[in-house]
Specification:
The protein has 13 helices and twelve strands. By secondary structure, the chain is of the alpha/beta class. The protein has two domains: 229 residues, Rossmann fold (3-Layer(aba) Sandwich); 67 residues, no CATH class.
């Protein structure tokens, strides 16, 4: 069954003030999130993943940031320029987000019960008694034992994994249509990471909530995502079905990320890393933004910026001149807008 898009981002451009000028942090990003889908967004720090997610939630701080261009379409409605009052009705209620570090997201001065209760009663008409029952139900949903006792505890009394589960419970309090998870497993050990990913997959199956999973780890994406977007220096450089991209990546950056994943059975002396770093926003004035780090770069890459081309594979898109050479410069499936 073909699932329609619940969230569409069209040609999004976001910049931040740096000195006296504005530098582009996200430059022309377009993608769709389908109903009931788990979509991964991957890239190194500074690639624009988190800024894209904050823009989708209406959370770009102004100043120093601003949305220069683009549209955010949620459930068929353009929400790009709605007021903060309208955003509050949507944010937390229909669009929800889990941030990277739960200890900084939870207030250390209030109990877990206080904070969950506030999240529920802010968006619903439940009584105090009904809200408490919903709190216990939510903690049970995210796999927290002795839920009633946990409601009386403070964030510092819980482990990192438990705090992250509480954050997921808060994000799911109003049964949102879209959940954005920004590096939800970064600060957790491997065993707890696996539990959180399993939990998110189970929630997706039970509640049909669409999820955007933001990460720098392609291994995490391979675990639970259906499609993946690879971002670099504020742009999408490749996107498509996870299995196809992991099996046959087209962009040199995606290939580098895959090569950087440690092999359990491997006996390499050194782990592979992509040479260089992500350029500062606005510093690449011409050519491909990855050219300085790319092992396959040639003269055209230094002079021209490649478009995001559709390949002959279903739904696969790549921003690379190597693709046009492979497919024939006039034979590629087209340029995405």
């Amino acid at each position: 069954m073909d699932r329609g898009p619940i969230l569409r981002i069209n040609d999004l451009k976001v910049s931040f003030q740096s000195g006296g000028n504005y530098a582009p942090a996200v430059d022309g990003v377009s993608f769709e999130l389908r109903e009931g889908e788990i979509l991964g967004i991957v890239g190194e720090s500074g690639s624009g993943k988190s800024v894209t997610s904050l823009a989708s939630m209406g959370l770009i701080p102004s100043p120093p940031g601003k949305i220069d261009n683009g549209k955010i379409i949620f459930a068929g409605k353009d929400i790009t320029d709605i007021s903060e009052r309208e955003w509050r009705k949507i944010r937390g209620n229909q669009l929800s987000m889990i941030f990277q570090e739960p200890m900084t997201s939870l207030n250390p001065l209030f109990t877990i019960g206080n904070q969950l209760d506030e999240a529920i009663r802010l968006h619903t008409n439940l009584t105090k008694k009904e809200s408490k029952s919903r709190c216990i139900e939510l903690l049970g949903l995210v796999g927290i034992p002795r839920a009633e006792g946990i409601l009386k505890e403070y964030p510092h009394q819980l482990s990192g994994g438990m705090r992250q589960r509480v954050m997921i419970a808060m994000a799911m309090a109003c049964q949102p249509k879209v959940l954005i998870a920004d590096e939800p497993t970064t600060a957790l050990d491997v065993t707890i990471q696996a539990q959180i990913l399993t939990l998110m997959k189970e929630l997706n199956n039970k509640t049909k909530t669409s999820i955007i999973l933001i990460t720098h780890d392609l291994g995490v994406v391979a675990e639970i995502c259906e499609r993946v977007i690879v971002m670099y220096a504020g742009q999408i450089v490749e996107q498509g079905e996870v299995r196809k991209i992991l099996k046959d990546p087209e962009h040199p950056y995606t290939k580098g990320l895959l090569k950087s994943i440690p092999e359990i059975r491997g006996k390499k002396d050194r782990l592979y890393s992509i040479p260089g770093t992500v350029p500062e926003p606005g510093t690449v004035k011409k050519g491909c933004r990855f050219a300085a780090r790319c092992p396959d770069a040639f003269a055209r890459c230094q002079m021209e910026e490649p478009e995001l081309y559709k390949t002959q594979k279903d739904g696969h898109e790549v921003r690379c001149f190597q693709h046009t050479l492979k497919e024939g410069s006039g034979d590629h499936a087209g340029v995405t807008s």
